[in-house]
Amino acid sequence: xxxxxxxxxxxxxxxxxxxxARAGTGDVTCYISADCGSGGxxxxxxxxxxxxxxxxxIKINPAVVPTQQxxxxxxxxxxxxxxxxxxxxxxxxxxxxxxxxxxxxFFGPLGVEDKDQLLERKLNQExxxxxxxxxxxAVNLFNSKGSGxxxxxxLGLLARYNKVTNHISPGGGVSGILGPIYFGYSIYDDETQxxxxxxxxxxxxxxYQVQTYNVGLYLSSLLLDxxxxxxKEPHESNVNxxxxxxxxxxxxxxxxxxxxxxxxPAFNFDTSSLEEKPTKEDYFGGVQYIAGKHFLVGAMxxxxxxxEVSGVVTFFF
Length: 317
Description:
This protein has four helices and 16 strands. With 317 residues, it is mainly beta.
């Protein structure tokens, strides 16, 4: 583990230790499904998502930060380097912190890098380098369950701190549920600064804006989701993601298809080279096992868009 990862892990561990003493008893099933609450009532969550990583989804739309009372800690592990996300819920309000990327993940937007950097990273099976720290919070404004039909609505805000530029970029989102239908929308500013580049300004922030929306259907153990992400700079791109998840007893199985329309080149894994290809298609697969009331473990394929296999562990207390 690098010094940087050790530092962020220490920060999360301190935050986790301080808040754990104040947390109520949580259930990981409630945490991941947003469909129950303490004492047998409804959770105050107002968002489902096709993204199997809670840590990733809250960096894209802060309104889906879980508000279920308790603490959630997620760690994604690939090549020995973990990506963290920590969530604290109070019932109607939830907050999250993560020192990890949403860029260049299967469910996230494009990252900023030139062709040489993209090629080298793909060849070496390296995750997109991180330089940001995300803080997000969600407030459930409305939540009801009458005659079996649930209605809920949440508002979320995020602040993304770039440790290279020392700038903070804002963002916000909404999410809601109406019966079996759920939806979400978010918009946020972001920036990246490259130390070396043959295509972009060096040591100068490259600023851009990302917009997302999703809509889906949740039927007991089946979830169907459509998500869209768009950005204008530095590459104009539109990403469409189709996801299906099913819960079979203690297993959660997820399959997704990503269609990216962008001007940047595509990496061909067969020839290990870049090629001009406006439409790129990728596939994702994941399996998670609910090992207990407070523990979930799983594996994901192509989460980092490297055709890799990574592990995921989630605790909720």
